[in-house]
Specification:
This protein is of the alpha/beta class. The protein has a single domain, classed as P-loop containing nucleotide triphosphate hydrolases (Rossmann fold). 42% of the residues lie in helices and 9% in strands. The strands form 2 sheets. It has a 4-stranded parallel β-sheet, sandwiched between helices. It has a 3-stranded antiparallel β-sheet with strand order 1-2-3.
Length: 336
């Protein structure tokens, strides 16, 4: 069923408006993000940052009807969504690593907002076809999104199972920085220190970080939500796979668990062409230098932050987590 044929399409209304990013913010960002040729928009309420094309069509995704046998994966960018979506797809498809390796992840677990992640001002027929293809996917679907809950269908949690993946903000900053330098539609030209400032000031794409994570954290006791951490995948990959399998009602055998645990080790995925997005270099989507799946290490921020920047980020984290019981692990003694 296409989006336009949904019986509730004309009844469900997104009570969020998108406006051009304030000139004082955009004037500062523009030289560092030459890829954003059409600017950026922010939502009210929420101050969610996104491309103008998404802002114009946000209601389309808000009205996207979830199915009872869907599995949705949510999370802030560069917090483990690629890794976790491969994990979920395998559990939902009888741990079939051969089929996973034969078909690119982008087709197996599509990102619903991907058609709008462009500086184009109109949705092309190709991108509209991509959006409609999600609606036509055979069940059970595995879908992913970097959108916060309030921009998704209000019945999502009561209808589908949702996995939320979180990562400590220090490593998320470093990973997103390298991502925006790699991907041409961002084409970030500044320093890590400048990027970290934009991140903390809620001015980068998909900001703000903490409201995104804290909203999901507040819903963690919902029976249809499994909240997990990138750092736990690094500590005990097989144990986390077993937890997700239990949440999804799957019972893989010991042999299957061993097989997909090996398949899902970060260094193996990094060299798996169906997952690592190296295709983006051949299609011109990404620059030649760098990798979409870079290190996948917890604590890599220590190789990037000086004392002053680290202190500033620590204070930012403390300020935003005040009054919450959410905590992040920023270093591990041992990790896969």
């Amino acid at each position: 069923m296409s989006l336009s044929n949904d019986n509730n399409f004309n009844q469900l209304q997104l009570r969020v408006q998108f406006y051009s990013m304030p000139q004082n913010e955009w004037k500062k960002l523009r030289p560092h993000f030459p890829g954003y040729t059409s600017g950026l928009v922010k939502s009210e309420p929420g101050k969610f940052v996104m491309n103008p094309l998404y802002g114009f069509h946000a209601e389309k995704l808000y009205r996207m009807q979830p199915r009872r046998d869907d599995v949705w994966l949510l999370g802030f960018p560069k917090c483990g969504t690629t890794w976790t979506s491969e994990l979920i797809w395998l559990l939902m498809n009888n741990c079939d690593t051969a089929r996973a390796s034969a078909t690119h992840l982008i087709f197996r677990t599509p990102c619903i907002e991907l058609p709008f992640l462009t500086s184009e001002t109109e949705l092309s027929p190709q991108m509209m076809n991509m959006l409609n293809a999600i609606e036509k996917m055979q069940s059970p679907r595995v879908l992913k999104s970097h959108l916060p809950f309030y921009l998704l269908h209000p019945d999502l949690l009561d209808t589908s199972k949702v996995v939320y993946i979180a990562r400590n903000p220090k490593d998320a900053i470093v990973s997103f920085y390298h991502h925006t330098k790699l991907v041409k539609r961002h084409n970030f030209q500044g320093t890590l220190e400048e990027f970290a400032e934009y991140f903390m000031e809620d001015e980068i794409l998909c900001s703000p970080f903490f409201p995104h994570v804290l909203d999901a954290w507040s819903k963690r006791h919902h029976p249809h939500l499994h909240f997990m951490f990138f750092e736990d995948l690094k500590k005990d990959l097989r144990g986390e796979i077993e937890k997700v399998a239990d949440f999804l009602g799957k019972s893989p055998s010991d042999e299957q668990l061993a097989k997909i645990t090996n398949h899902l080790r970060f260094d193996n995925l990094k060299h798996n062409d169906s997952v690592n997005n190296e295709l983006g270099k051949r299609t011109g989507f990404m620059n030649k230098d760098g990798n979409f799946m870079r290190k996948g290490k917890t604590g890599d921020w220590k190789n990037h932050f000086g004392p002053d920047l680290n202190s500033k980020i620590d204070k930012w984290i403390e300020r935003n987590l005040r009054g919450s019981d959410l905590t992040f692990i920023t270093k591990l003694e041992q990790q896969d």
